[in-house]
Design the sequence.
């Protein structure tokens, strides 16, 4: 995550040294959440045509909650935000800051900046039909950055767990690794 967050939206998190980092805690809570235990997801599975309205309600409530928290800050002590919405709201805050400071001459080189530029510029597709132009919609920006960050969280831990498993079960590979480490010094 210390690599994913700066690459995705330019935030230095220092999660390796700070286990109480809110980004780390919310990411961990996001993957601990059992989707089947959430009532709205059960309803969406039972009654598929309600999936879209329920989605709109959940994310609409997230927007209402964010506004209420700005107006009445003491509510933060009593109401906990859903981890996915918390992470998406942090990304939204970064996007808002970037838009406000877009007049700055400082250009960042991260995925968020590239995607923000793609929302402003039309991309011409010369392969099929030169008259077709494509642009990333601004409402696609936040979910894409969120997915990039969430995907990076779980894949790294899975790769490390699998590598550890292989080293624990394959003595010859473990010995070869130890030999390579000793020879590298």
Sequence:
């Amino acid at each position: 995550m210390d690599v994913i967050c700066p690459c995705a939206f330019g935030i230095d998190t220092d999660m390796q040294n700070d286990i109480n980092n809110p980004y780390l805690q919310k990411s961990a809570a996001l993957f601990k959440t059992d989707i089947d235990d959430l009532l709205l997801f059960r309803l969406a599975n039972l009654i598929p045509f309600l999936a879209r309205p329920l989605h709109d309600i959940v994310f609409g409530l997230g927007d209402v909650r964010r506004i209420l928290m700005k107006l009445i800050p003491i509510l933060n002590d009593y109401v906990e935000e859903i981890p996915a919405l918390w992470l998406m709201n942090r990304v939204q805050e970064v996007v808002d800051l970037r838009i406000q400071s877009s007049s700055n001459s400082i250009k960042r080189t991260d995925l968020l900046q590239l995607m923000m530029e793609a929302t402003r510029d039309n991309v011409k597709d010369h392969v099929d039909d030169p008259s077709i132009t494509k642009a990333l919609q601004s409402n696609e920006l936040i979910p894409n950055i969120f997915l990039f960050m969430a995907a990076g969280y779980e894949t790294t831990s899975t790769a490390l767990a699998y590598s550890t498993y292989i080293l624990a079960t394959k003595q010859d590979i473990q010995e070869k690794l130890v030999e390579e480490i000793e020879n590298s010094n």
Remarks:
- Strands lie at 123-124, 133-134.
- The longest strand covers residues 123-124.
